[in-house]
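User: I'm putting together a teaching handout on how multi-component assemblies are represented. Below are the sequence lines for each component of a complex, exactly as they appear in our records. Could you produce the 3D structure of the whole assembly as C-alpha coordinates, so the students can see both representations side by side? Please keep the chain order the same as the input.
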Amino acid sequence: MMIPIDAKTGVCALIGNPVKHSFSPLIHNAAFKEAGLNLVYVAFPVKEKNLGPAIQGLSALAIRGASITIPHKVAATRHVGWIDPVAARIGSINTIVNDSGNLKGYNSDGMGALKALQDRGVSPEGKRILIVGSGGAARGIAFTLAMRARLAGLVIVGVIRNEVAVLVDNLRTVTEAPVEGDAMEEGTLRSHLSACDMVINCTPVGMYPKVQESPVPKAFLREGLVVFDVVYNPLQTQLLRDAGSTGCHTISGVEMFINQAVVQFELWTGVKAPEAIMKKVILEQVSGR
Amino acid sequence: MMIPIDAKTGVCALIGNPVKHSFSPLIHNAAFKEAGLNLVYVAFPVKEKNLGPAIQGLSALAIRGASITIPHKVAATRHVGWIDPVAARIGSINTIVNDSGNLKGYNSDGMGALKALQDRGVSPEGKRILIVGSGGAARGIAFTLAMRARLAGLVIVGVIRNEVAVLVDNLRTVTEAPVEGDAMEEGTLRSHLSACDMVINCTPVGMYPKVQESPVPKAFLREGLVVFDVVYNPLQTQLLRDAGSTGCHTISGVEMFINQAVVQFELWTGVKAPEAIMKKVILEQVSGR
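Assistant: Of course. Below is the structure of the complete assembly, with chains in the same order as your input.
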Protein backbone atom coordinates (compact mmCIF):
# COMPACT_ATOMS: atom_id res chain seq x y z
CA MET A 1 0.00 0.00 0.00
CA MET A 2 1.60 3.23 -1.16
CA ILE A 3 0.51 6.34 0.65
CA PRO A 4 1.85 9.89 0.70
CA ILE A 5 3.67 11.06 3.82
CA ASP A 6 4.60 14.63 4.67
CA ALA A 7 4.99 16.74 7.81
CA LYS A 8 1.21 17.13 8.16
CA THR A 9 0.41 13.41 7.94
CA GLY A 10 -1.48 12.27 11.03
CA VAL A 11 -0.72 8.86 12.49
CA CYS A 12 -2.90 5.96 13.61
CA ALA A 13 -1.29 2.85 15.07
CA LEU A 14 -1.63 -0.79 15.91
CA ILE A 15 -0.36 -1.87 19.33
CA GLY A 16 0.12 -5.59 19.92
CA ASN A 17 2.73 -8.30 20.04
CA PRO A 18 3.40 -9.73 17.55
CA VAL A 19 2.05 -7.31 14.92
CA LYS A 20 4.05 -8.43 11.89
CA HIS A 21 1.26 -10.50 10.31
CA SER A 22 -1.56 -8.01 10.82
CA PHE A 23 -3.71 -6.97 7.86
CA SER A 24 -4.73 -3.76 9.62
CA PRO A 25 -2.02 -1.50 8.12
CA LEU A 26 -3.03 -2.53 4.59
CA ILE A 27 -6.75 -2.08 5.27
CA HIS A 28 -6.56 1.26 7.06
CA ASN A 29 -3.96 2.77 4.74
CA ALA A 30 -6.09 1.81 1.75
CA ALA A 31 -9.10 3.38 3.45
CA PHE A 32 -7.27 6.61 4.34
CA LYS A 33 -6.07 6.94 0.77
CA GLU A 34 -9.51 6.23 -0.71
CA ALA A 35 -11.10 8.78 1.63
CA GLY A 36 -8.47 11.40 0.73
CA LEU A 37 -7.31 11.75 4.34
CA ASN A 38 -3.70 12.68 5.14
CA LEU A 39 -3.30 9.87 7.65
CA VAL A 40 -1.02 6.85 7.87
CA TYR A 41 -1.43 3.67 9.90
CA VAL A 42 1.65 1.93 11.30
CA ALA A 43 2.16 -1.13 13.51
CA PHE A 44 4.07 -0.93 16.79
CA PRO A 45 5.23 -4.14 18.49
CA VAL A 46 4.81 -3.45 22.22
CA LYS A 47 5.92 -5.70 25.07
CA GLU A 48 3.53 -6.21 27.99
CA LYS A 49 5.82 -4.37 30.45
CA ASN A 50 5.80 -1.36 28.11
CA LEU A 51 2.05 -1.07 27.60
CA GLY A 52 1.54 1.85 30.00
CA PRO A 53 4.27 4.08 28.52
CA ALA A 54 3.22 3.03 25.02
CA ILE A 55 -0.36 4.19 25.56
CA GLN A 56 0.76 7.37 27.35
CA GLY A 57 3.03 7.85 24.33
CA LEU A 58 0.00 7.78 22.01
CA SER A 59 -1.34 10.82 23.81
CA ALA A 60 1.99 12.65 24.12
CA LEU A 61 2.84 12.06 20.45
CA ALA A 62 -0.63 13.20 19.34
CA ILE A 63 -1.28 9.88 17.59
CA ARG A 64 -4.90 10.10 16.40
CA GLY A 65 -6.05 6.65 17.32
CA ALA A 66 -4.97 3.08 17.82
CA SER A 67 -6.05 -0.50 17.38
CA ILE A 68 -5.20 -2.67 20.37
CA THR A 69 -4.66 -6.35 19.77
CA ILE A 70 -3.40 -9.48 21.50
CA PRO A 71 -2.10 -9.62 24.23
CA HIS A 72 -3.09 -6.08 25.33
CA LYS A 73 -6.89 -5.84 24.97
CA VAL A 74 -7.65 -6.36 28.67
CA ALA A 75 -4.66 -4.54 30.19
CA ALA A 76 -5.18 -1.53 27.91
CA THR A 77 -8.41 -0.72 29.78
CA ARG A 78 -6.26 0.44 32.72
CA HIS A 79 -4.44 3.07 30.68
CA VAL A 80 -7.24 5.11 29.09
CA GLY A 81 -9.19 7.93 30.68
CA TRP A 82 -12.65 6.88 29.54
CA ILE A 83 -14.19 3.59 28.44
CA ASP A 84 -17.32 3.08 26.36
CA PRO A 85 -19.97 1.45 28.61
CA VAL A 86 -20.27 -1.68 26.45
CA ALA A 87 -16.47 -2.07 26.31
CA ALA A 88 -16.34 -1.60 30.09
CA ARG A 89 -18.72 -4.57 30.54
CA ILE A 90 -16.78 -6.64 28.01
CA GLY A 91 -13.66 -5.82 30.01
CA SER A 92 -11.43 -5.23 27.00
CA ILE A 93 -10.80 -2.58 24.36
CA ASN A 94 -9.46 -2.94 20.84
CA THR A 95 -9.74 0.71 19.84
CA ILE A 96 -8.39 3.96 21.30
CA VAL A 97 -9.48 7.39 20.14
CA ASN A 98 -7.24 10.34 21.05
CA ASP A 99 -9.68 13.16 21.76
CA SER A 100 -7.32 16.16 22.15
CA GLY A 101 -5.02 14.23 24.44
CA ASN A 102 -7.81 12.38 26.28
CA LEU A 103 -7.71 8.71 25.40
CA LYS A 104 -11.05 6.93 24.99
CA GLY A 105 -11.40 3.16 24.78
CA TYR A 106 -13.90 1.21 22.67
CA ASN A 107 -14.45 -2.37 21.64
CA SER A 108 -15.22 -2.49 17.94
CA ASP A 109 -15.22 -6.30 17.73
CA GLY A 110 -18.75 -6.61 19.08
CA MET A 111 -19.85 -3.54 17.10
CA GLY A 112 -18.32 -5.11 13.99
CA ALA A 113 -20.27 -8.32 14.59
CA LEU A 114 -23.52 -6.41 15.07
CA LYS A 115 -22.88 -4.38 11.91
CA ALA A 116 -22.07 -7.57 9.97
CA LEU A 117 -25.49 -8.94 10.95
CA GLN A 118 -27.27 -5.70 10.07
CA ASP A 119 -25.48 -5.42 6.71
CA ARG A 120 -26.91 -8.81 5.83
CA GLY A 121 -30.41 -7.79 6.89
CA VAL A 122 -30.30 -9.95 10.02
CA SER A 123 -31.61 -8.19 13.13
CA PRO A 124 -30.84 -9.69 16.54
CA GLU A 125 -34.04 -8.12 17.93
CA GLY A 126 -36.28 -10.75 19.52
CA LYS A 127 -33.89 -13.55 18.58
CA ARG A 128 -32.69 -16.50 20.63
CA ILE A 129 -28.93 -16.67 20.15
CA LEU A 130 -26.44 -19.43 20.91
CA ILE A 131 -22.82 -18.36 21.38
CA VAL A 132 -20.20 -21.11 21.22
CA GLY A 133 -17.17 -20.16 23.28
CA SER A 134 -16.63 -17.92 26.30
CA GLY A 135 -13.34 -16.09 25.60
CA GLY A 136 -12.69 -12.53 24.45
CA ALA A 137 -14.60 -12.76 21.18
CA ALA A 138 -17.61 -14.32 22.93
CA ARG A 139 -17.63 -11.61 25.61
CA GLY A 140 -17.38 -8.87 22.98
CA ILE A 141 -20.26 -10.17 20.90
CA ALA A 142 -22.45 -11.29 23.83
CA PHE A 143 -22.36 -7.92 25.63
CA THR A 144 -22.79 -5.93 22.46
CA LEU A 145 -25.85 -7.94 21.41
CA ALA A 146 -27.30 -8.02 24.93
CA MET A 147 -26.83 -4.25 25.45
CA ARG A 148 -27.71 -3.02 21.96
CA ALA A 149 -30.67 -5.29 21.16
CA ARG A 150 -33.61 -6.86 23.01
CA LEU A 151 -32.87 -10.55 22.70
CA ALA A 152 -35.43 -13.27 23.40
CA GLY A 153 -32.68 -15.44 24.88
CA LEU A 154 -28.93 -15.96 25.03
CA VAL A 155 -27.09 -19.23 25.63
CA ILE A 156 -23.35 -19.53 26.14
CA VAL A 157 -21.72 -22.93 25.73
CA GLY A 158 -18.03 -23.43 26.36
CA VAL A 159 -15.38 -25.86 27.51
CA ILE A 160 -14.07 -23.70 30.37
CA ARG A 161 -16.87 -24.02 32.92
CA ASN A 162 -15.78 -21.20 35.18
CA GLU A 163 -15.34 -18.76 32.29
CA VAL A 164 -18.85 -19.62 31.04
CA ALA A 165 -20.29 -19.11 34.52
CA VAL A 166 -18.64 -15.69 34.94
CA LEU A 167 -19.79 -14.54 31.50
CA VAL A 168 -23.38 -15.68 32.12
CA ASP A 169 -23.39 -13.99 35.51
CA ASN A 170 -22.00 -10.74 34.05
CA LEU A 171 -24.51 -10.81 31.18
CA ARG A 172 -27.46 -11.14 33.57
CA THR A 173 -26.64 -7.71 35.00
CA VAL A 174 -27.08 -5.98 31.63
CA THR A 175 -30.06 -7.71 30.01
CA GLU A 176 -33.53 -8.80 31.04
CA ALA A 177 -33.45 -11.58 28.46
CA PRO A 178 -32.95 -15.09 29.84
CA VAL A 179 -29.25 -15.99 29.81
CA GLU A 180 -28.09 -19.54 30.24
CA GLY A 181 -24.71 -21.25 30.37
CA ASP A 182 -23.89 -24.81 29.48
CA ALA A 183 -21.05 -27.20 28.74
CA MET A 184 -19.96 -27.60 25.14
CA GLU A 185 -21.00 -31.15 24.32
CA GLU A 186 -22.96 -32.89 21.57
CA GLY A 187 -26.11 -33.16 23.66
CA THR A 188 -26.14 -29.55 24.80
CA LEU A 189 -25.30 -28.24 21.31
CA ARG A 190 -28.14 -30.30 19.80
CA SER A 191 -30.78 -29.14 22.24
CA HIS A 192 -29.75 -25.45 22.30
CA LEU A 193 -29.45 -25.30 18.52
CA SER A 194 -32.95 -26.66 18.09
CA ALA A 195 -34.29 -23.82 20.27
CA CYS A 196 -32.19 -20.94 18.82
CA ASP A 197 -32.51 -18.70 15.75
CA MET A 198 -28.82 -18.00 15.42
CA VAL A 199 -25.50 -19.60 16.36
CA ILE A 200 -22.25 -17.67 16.57
CA ASN A 201 -18.97 -19.56 16.70
CA CYS A 202 -16.56 -17.61 18.90
CA THR A 203 -14.01 -20.42 19.28
CA PRO A 204 -10.94 -20.88 17.06
CA VAL A 205 -12.21 -24.30 15.91
CA GLY A 206 -11.95 -24.54 12.12
CA MET A 207 -9.17 -21.96 11.86
CA TYR A 208 -6.15 -22.60 9.65
CA PRO A 209 -4.41 -25.09 9.68
CA LYS A 210 -7.15 -27.37 11.15
CA VAL A 211 -9.59 -26.38 8.44
CA GLN A 212 -11.57 -29.64 8.47
CA GLU A 213 -12.78 -29.14 12.03
CA SER A 214 -16.10 -27.59 12.99
CA PRO A 215 -17.45 -26.63 16.43
CA VAL A 216 -20.95 -27.81 15.50
CA PRO A 217 -21.88 -31.18 13.94
CA LYS A 218 -23.53 -30.69 10.55
CA ALA A 219 -26.48 -32.85 11.60
CA PHE A 220 -27.55 -30.21 14.17
CA LEU A 221 -27.91 -27.46 11.57
CA ARG A 222 -31.23 -26.75 9.86
CA GLU A 223 -32.59 -24.59 7.05
CA GLY A 224 -33.19 -20.95 8.02
CA LEU A 225 -30.78 -20.98 10.97
CA VAL A 226 -28.39 -18.00 10.99
CA VAL A 227 -24.80 -19.31 11.27
CA PHE A 228 -22.11 -16.73 11.99
CA ASP A 229 -18.47 -17.82 12.30
CA VAL A 230 -15.93 -15.34 13.70
CA VAL A 231 -13.09 -17.34 12.11
CA TYR A 232 -12.02 -15.70 8.83
CA ASN A 233 -9.01 -17.76 7.94
CA PRO A 234 -10.10 -19.70 5.87
CA LEU A 235 -12.87 -17.52 4.45
CA GLN A 236 -15.14 -20.56 4.13
CA THR A 237 -14.79 -22.61 7.28
CA GLN A 238 -16.10 -26.15 7.55
CA LEU A 239 -18.95 -24.78 9.69
CA LEU A 240 -19.95 -22.28 6.99
CA ARG A 241 -19.67 -24.93 4.25
CA ASP A 242 -21.91 -27.28 6.24
CA ALA A 243 -24.32 -24.43 6.96
CA GLY A 244 -24.42 -23.32 3.34
CA SER A 245 -25.22 -26.82 2.08
CA THR A 246 -27.97 -27.13 4.72
CA GLY A 247 -29.76 -23.95 3.65
CA CYS A 248 -28.65 -21.81 6.58
CA HIS A 249 -28.13 -18.07 6.37
CA THR A 250 -24.28 -17.78 6.64
CA ILE A 251 -22.15 -14.84 7.77
CA SER A 252 -18.36 -15.06 7.59
CA GLY A 253 -15.85 -13.82 10.11
CA VAL A 254 -14.36 -11.64 7.43
CA GLU A 255 -17.51 -9.53 7.52
CA MET A 256 -17.03 -8.96 11.23
CA PHE A 257 -13.35 -8.26 10.68
CA ILE A 258 -14.06 -5.66 8.00
CA ASN A 259 -16.78 -4.08 10.09
CA GLN A 260 -14.68 -3.78 13.23
CA ALA A 261 -12.14 -1.92 11.07
CA VAL A 262 -14.94 0.22 9.61
CA VAL A 263 -16.07 1.12 13.14
CA GLN A 264 -12.47 2.01 14.11
CA PHE A 265 -12.01 4.15 11.01
CA GLU A 266 -15.20 6.07 11.73
CA LEU A 267 -14.32 6.54 15.42
CA TRP A 268 -10.89 7.97 14.48
CA THR A 269 -11.87 10.13 11.54
CA GLY A 270 -15.52 11.03 12.04
CA VAL A 271 -16.15 10.32 8.36
CA LYS A 272 -17.89 7.43 6.63
CA ALA A 273 -15.47 4.57 5.96
CA PRO A 274 -14.89 3.50 2.34
CA GLU A 275 -16.12 -0.03 3.02
CA ALA A 276 -15.74 -1.37 -0.51
CA ILE A 277 -11.98 -0.79 -0.67
CA MET A 278 -11.49 -2.16 2.86
CA LYS A 279 -13.38 -5.30 1.89
CA LYS A 280 -11.37 -5.62 -1.32
CA VAL A 281 -8.04 -5.39 0.52
CA ILE A 282 -8.92 -7.93 3.19
CA LEU A 283 -10.37 -10.39 0.67
CA GLU A 284 -7.21 -10.14 -1.43
CA GLN A 285 -5.08 -10.79 1.64
CA VAL A 286 -7.11 -13.69 3.00
CA SER A 287 -7.54 -15.31 -0.41
CA GLY A 288 -3.85 -14.88 -1.10
CA ARG A 289 -2.81 -17.01 1.85
CA MET B 1 6.51 11.08 -1.13
CA MET B 2 4.78 7.72 -1.66
CA ILE B 3 6.14 4.86 0.36
CA PRO B 4 4.83 1.35 1.06
CA ILE B 5 3.45 0.63 4.51
CA ASP B 6 2.66 -2.78 5.93
CA ALA B 7 2.71 -4.48 9.34
CA LYS B 8 6.51 -4.83 9.24
CA THR B 9 7.23 -1.19 8.43
CA GLY B 10 9.50 0.34 11.07
CA VAL B 11 8.91 3.91 12.17
CA CYS B 12 11.19 6.92 12.61
CA ALA B 13 9.76 10.17 13.85
CA LEU B 14 10.17 13.91 14.16
CA ILE B 15 9.36 15.43 17.55
CA GLY B 16 8.94 19.19 17.71
CA ASN B 17 6.34 21.93 17.81
CA PRO B 18 5.33 23.02 15.28
CA VAL B 19 6.35 20.28 12.84
CA LYS B 20 3.96 21.02 9.97
CA HIS B 21 6.49 22.84 7.80
CA SER B 22 9.39 20.42 8.24
CA PHE B 23 11.14 18.99 5.19
CA SER B 24 12.42 16.03 7.20
CA PRO B 25 9.55 13.61 6.36
CA LEU B 26 10.08 14.17 2.63
CA ILE B 27 13.86 13.79 2.87
CA HIS B 28 13.94 10.71 5.09
CA ASN B 29 11.06 8.93 3.34
CA ALA B 30 12.78 9.47 -0.01
CA ALA B 31 16.00 8.11 1.47
CA PHE B 32 14.32 5.03 3.01
CA LYS B 33 12.65 4.27 -0.31
CA GLU B 34 15.87 4.75 -2.30
CA ALA B 35 17.78 2.51 0.11
CA GLY B 36 15.07 -0.18 -0.09
CA LEU B 37 14.40 -0.06 3.66
CA ASN B 38 10.93 -0.85 5.04
CA LEU B 39 10.85 2.27 7.20
CA VAL B 40 8.59 5.30 7.33
CA TYR B 41 9.23 8.73 8.86
CA VAL B 42 6.34 10.64 10.42
CA ALA B 43 6.11 13.96 12.26
CA PHE B 44 4.64 14.19 15.76
CA PRO B 45 3.69 17.61 17.16
CA VAL B 46 4.60 17.40 20.87
CA LYS B 47 3.85 20.03 23.52
CA GLU B 48 6.60 20.88 26.01
CA LYS B 49 4.67 19.41 28.96
CA ASN B 50 4.40 16.10 27.05
CA LEU B 51 8.06 15.72 26.09
CA GLY B 52 8.91 13.14 28.77
CA PRO B 53 6.03 10.74 27.96
CA ALA B 54 6.60 11.33 24.24
CA ILE B 55 10.24 10.23 24.46
CA GLN B 56 9.39 7.30 26.77
CA GLY B 57 6.75 6.46 24.16
CA LEU B 58 9.45 6.20 21.47
CA SER B 59 11.03 3.42 23.47
CA ALA B 60 7.78 1.66 24.45
CA LEU B 61 6.45 1.78 20.87
CA ALA B 62 9.76 0.47 19.48
CA ILE B 63 10.14 3.54 17.25
CA ARG B 64 13.58 3.14 15.62
CA GLY B 65 14.81 6.67 15.93
CA ALA B 66 13.78 10.29 16.10
CA SER B 67 14.75 13.77 15.06
CA ILE B 68 14.29 16.33 17.83
CA THR B 69 13.65 19.90 16.82
CA ILE B 70 12.60 23.24 18.29
CA PRO B 71 11.67 23.73 21.14
CA HIS B 72 12.82 20.38 22.55
CA LYS B 73 16.55 20.05 21.71
CA VAL B 74 17.80 21.03 25.18
CA ALA B 75 15.04 19.45 27.31
CA ALA B 76 15.27 16.16 25.38
CA THR B 77 18.73 15.57 26.90
CA ARG B 78 16.99 14.83 30.24
CA HIS B 79 14.94 11.95 28.80
CA VAL B 80 17.53 9.71 27.14
CA GLY B 81 19.70 7.10 28.81
CA TRP B 82 22.97 7.96 27.12
CA ILE B 83 24.31 11.07 25.40
CA ASP B 84 27.14 11.27 22.89
CA PRO B 85 30.05 13.17 24.54
CA VAL B 86 30.03 15.98 21.97
CA ALA B 87 26.25 16.39 22.28
CA ALA B 88 26.62 16.42 26.07
CA ARG B 89 29.02 19.40 25.80
CA ILE B 90 26.75 21.15 23.31
CA GLY B 91 23.93 20.63 25.79
CA SER B 92 21.34 19.65 23.19
CA ILE B 93 20.38 16.69 21.03
CA ASN B 94 18.57 16.61 17.70
CA THR B 95 18.75 12.85 17.15
CA ILE B 96 17.64 9.84 19.18
CA VAL B 97 18.59 6.26 18.35
CA ASN B 98 16.51 3.48 19.93
CA ASP B 99 19.05 0.77 20.67
CA SER B 100 16.78 -2.15 21.74
CA GLY B 101 14.79 0.09 24.05
CA ASN B 102 17.78 2.13 25.26
CA LEU B 103 17.53 5.67 23.93
CA LYS B 104 20.78 7.35 22.87
CA GLY B 105 21.08 11.05 22.11
CA TYR B 106 23.26 12.69 19.46
CA ASN B 107 23.63 16.11 17.90
CA SER B 108 23.92 15.75 14.15
CA ASP B 109 23.87 19.51 13.47
CA GLY B 110 27.55 19.94 14.27
CA MET B 111 28.40 16.62 12.59
CA GLY B 112 26.47 17.80 9.53
CA ALA B 113 28.44 21.04 9.45
CA LEU B 114 31.75 19.17 9.74
CA LYS B 115 30.70 16.76 6.99
CA ALA B 116 29.62 19.68 4.77
CA LEU B 117 33.15 21.12 5.10
CA GLN B 118 34.81 17.76 4.43
CA ASP B 119 32.58 17.09 1.40
CA ARG B 120 33.89 20.32 -0.08
CA GLY B 121 37.50 19.40 0.62
CA VAL B 122 37.79 21.92 3.44
CA SER B 123 39.51 20.58 6.54
CA PRO B 124 39.19 22.51 9.80
CA GLU B 125 42.55 21.07 10.96
CA GLY B 126 44.96 23.86 11.89
CA LYS B 127 42.48 26.56 10.90
CA ARG B 128 41.54 29.76 12.65
CA ILE B 129 37.76 29.92 12.65
CA LEU B 130 35.37 32.79 13.36
CA ILE B 131 31.86 31.84 14.43
CA VAL B 132 29.24 34.57 14.28
CA GLY B 133 26.49 33.97 16.82
CA SER B 134 26.35 32.14 20.16
CA GLY B 135 23.00 30.27 20.14
CA GLY B 136 22.21 26.62 19.57
CA ALA B 137 23.68 26.37 16.07
CA ALA B 138 26.89 28.11 17.19
CA ARG B 139 27.26 25.76 20.18
CA GLY B 140 26.71 22.70 17.99
CA ILE B 141 29.27 23.69 15.40
CA ALA B 142 31.82 25.15 17.84
CA PHE B 143 31.98 22.06 20.07
CA THR B 144 32.00 19.65 17.16
CA LEU B 145 34.88 21.47 15.46
CA ALA B 146 36.78 21.98 18.72
CA MET B 147 36.39 18.34 19.80
CA ARG B 148 36.82 16.65 16.41
CA ALA B 149 39.65 18.75 14.94
CA ARG B 150 42.79 20.51 16.15
CA LEU B 151 42.00 24.14 15.47
CA ALA B 152 44.62 26.88 15.46
CA GLY B 153 42.09 29.26 16.97
CA LEU B 154 38.39 29.84 17.55
CA VAL B 155 36.64 33.18 17.95
CA ILE B 156 33.00 33.60 18.91
CA VAL B 157 31.34 36.95 18.26
CA GLY B 158 27.75 37.58 19.30
CA VAL B 159 25.29 40.18 20.45
CA ILE B 160 24.34 38.44 23.71
CA ARG B 161 27.46 39.06 25.81
CA ASN B 162 26.68 36.57 28.56
CA GLU B 163 25.88 33.77 26.09
CA VAL B 164 29.18 34.40 24.29
CA ALA B 165 31.08 34.33 27.60
CA VAL B 166 29.50 31.03 28.67
CA LEU B 167 30.18 29.40 25.31
CA VAL B 168 33.82 30.57 25.30
CA ASP B 169 34.27 29.34 28.84
CA ASN B 170 32.73 25.94 28.02
CA LEU B 171 34.83 25.59 24.87
CA ARG B 172 38.05 26.21 26.78
CA THR B 173 37.44 22.99 28.74
CA VAL B 174 37.45 20.84 25.60
CA THR B 175 40.18 22.32 23.42
CA GLU B 176 43.75 23.49 23.83
CA ALA B 177 43.34 25.89 20.93
CA PRO B 178 43.00 29.56 21.87
CA VAL B 179 39.33 30.49 22.20
CA GLU B 180 38.23 34.09 22.30
CA GLY B 181 34.88 35.85 22.64
CA ASP B 182 33.98 39.28 21.42
CA ALA B 183 31.06 41.60 20.76
CA MET B 184 29.51 41.53 17.29
CA GLU B 185 30.41 44.95 15.89
CA GLU B 186 31.99 46.27 12.71
CA GLY B 187 35.37 46.76 14.31
CA THR B 188 35.59 43.34 15.90
CA LEU B 189 34.31 41.60 12.76
CA ARG B 190 36.92 43.39 10.61
CA SER B 191 39.85 42.51 12.82
CA HIS B 192 38.86 38.90 13.51
CA LEU B 193 38.05 38.25 9.86
CA SER B 194 41.46 39.49 8.80
CA ALA B 195 43.09 36.93 11.13
CA CYS B 196 40.81 33.94 10.37
CA ASP B 197 40.73 31.32 7.60
CA MET B 198 37.02 30.62 7.87
CA VAL B 199 33.84 32.38 9.00
CA ILE B 200 30.66 30.53 9.89
CA ASN B 201 27.42 32.47 10.21
CA CYS B 202 25.32 30.87 12.94
CA THR B 203 22.84 33.75 13.27
CA PRO B 204 19.51 33.96 11.44
CA VAL B 205 20.62 37.18 9.69
CA GLY B 206 19.84 36.91 5.99
CA MET B 207 17.06 34.37 6.41
CA TYR B 208 13.77 34.78 4.54
CA PRO B 209 12.07 37.28 4.49
CA LYS B 210 14.96 39.67 5.27
CA VAL B 211 17.04 38.31 2.42
CA GLN B 212 19.02 41.51 1.75
CA GLU B 213 20.67 41.46 5.17
CA SER B 214 24.08 40.01 5.89
CA PRO B 215 25.86 39.47 9.21
CA VAL B 216 29.23 40.49 7.69
CA PRO B 217 29.94 43.61 5.58
CA LYS B 218 31.13 42.65 2.09
CA ALA B 219 34.19 44.88 2.45
CA PHE B 220 35.58 42.59 5.19
CA LEU B 221 35.63 39.51 2.95
CA ARG B 222 38.68 38.52 0.94
CA GLU B 223 39.68 36.00 -1.72
CA GLY B 224 40.39 32.50 -0.38
CA LEU B 225 38.38 32.97 2.84
CA VAL B 226 36.01 30.05 3.56
CA VAL B 227 32.50 31.44 4.14
CA PHE B 228 29.91 29.02 5.55
CA ASP B 229 26.35 30.20 6.18
CA VAL B 230 24.02 27.95 8.22
CA VAL B 231 21.00 29.77 6.77
CA TYR B 232 19.50 27.72 3.91
CA ASN B 233 16.41 29.70 3.13
CA PRO B 234 17.20 31.34 0.71
CA LEU B 235 19.77 28.96 -0.76
CA GLN B 236 21.99 31.89 -1.78
CA THR B 237 22.04 34.34 1.10
CA GLN B 238 23.37 37.87 0.72
CA LEU B 239 26.48 36.75 2.63
CA LEU B 240 27.13 33.91 0.18
CA ARG B 241 26.50 36.17 -2.83
CA ASP B 242 28.97 38.74 -1.47
CA ALA B 243 31.46 35.97 -0.71
CA GLY B 244 31.10 34.41 -4.14
CA SER B 245 31.73 37.69 -5.94
CA THR B 246 34.79 38.30 -3.74
CA GLY B 247 36.43 34.98 -4.60
CA CYS B 248 35.71 33.25 -1.29
CA HIS B 249 35.14 29.53 -0.94
CA THR B 250 31.37 29.32 -0.14
CA ILE B 251 29.41 26.60 1.64
CA SER B 252 25.63 26.85 1.94
CA GLY B 253 23.46 25.99 4.91
CA VAL B 254 21.63 23.48 2.75
CA GLU B 255 24.78 21.35 2.69
CA MET B 256 24.80 21.28 6.48
CA PHE B 257 21.07 20.56 6.51
CA ILE B 258 21.44 17.62 4.13
CA ASN B 259 24.42 16.29 6.02
CA GLN B 260 22.75 16.43 9.44
CA ALA B 261 19.97 14.33 7.88
CA VAL B 262 22.57 11.99 6.35
CA VAL B 263 24.14 11.53 9.79
CA GLN B 264 20.71 10.81 11.33
CA PHE B 265 19.88 8.30 8.61
CA GLU B 266 23.15 6.45 9.16
CA LEU B 267 22.76 6.48 12.96
CA TRP B 268 19.25 4.96 12.67
CA THR B 269 19.85 2.43 9.93
CA GLY B 270 23.55 1.58 10.06
CA VAL B 271 23.68 1.79 6.27
CA LYS B 272 25.14 4.44 3.97
CA ALA B 273 22.64 7.20 3.26
CA PRO B 274 21.59 7.81 -0.36
CA GLU B 275 22.86 11.39 -0.29
CA ALA B 276 22.02 12.26 -3.89
CA ILE B 277 18.27 11.69 -3.49
CA MET B 278 18.24 13.51 -0.13
CA LYS B 279 19.95 16.50 -1.73
CA LYS B 280 17.54 16.42 -4.68
CA VAL B 281 14.48 16.46 -2.39
CA ILE B 282 15.71 19.30 -0.20
CA LEU B 283 16.79 21.41 -3.18
CA GLU B 284 13.37 20.92 -4.81
CA GLN B 285 11.68 21.99 -1.60
CA VAL B 286 13.85 25.01 -0.90
CA SER B 287 13.81 26.19 -4.53
CA GLY B 288 10.06 25.74 -4.67
CA ARG B 289 9.42 28.21 -1.87
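A couple of points students might notice: The CA atoms of residues 64 and 151 of chain A lie 35 Å apart. The two ends of chain A are 17 Å apart (CA to CA).
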